[in-house]
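Hello support,

Our group uses your service weekly, and this is the first time we've seen a run hang past the timeout. The protein is Phosphocarrier protein HPr. I'm not sure whether the cause is the sequence or the server load. Input pasted verbatim:
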Amino acid sequence: MSRKEVVVSNVSKEHDNPIAELVQVACRYDSEIILESNNRRINAKSIMGIMAFNPSKGMTVNIVAEGSDEEEALDAMEKFLVCE
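Update from on-call engineer: The timeout came from a worker crash unrelated to the input. Re-ran successfully.
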């Protein structure tokens, strides 16, 4: 299991449809990917979960990935959320 804490950048400014795009990034990987913030845990591959989670600028998020490609998944999720 890999874990990384990031501060979300302005994803709505950088991406046309940030919620759908974030789910698409997560779905590229076989690993389970969970986002955590303020005692909430959601599956990053769930569009409804991401909509309810609503990652927004300045929010601190823990990305947790577990599986065969967890490091790659973690890096991709981080790049998306911090808009690199």
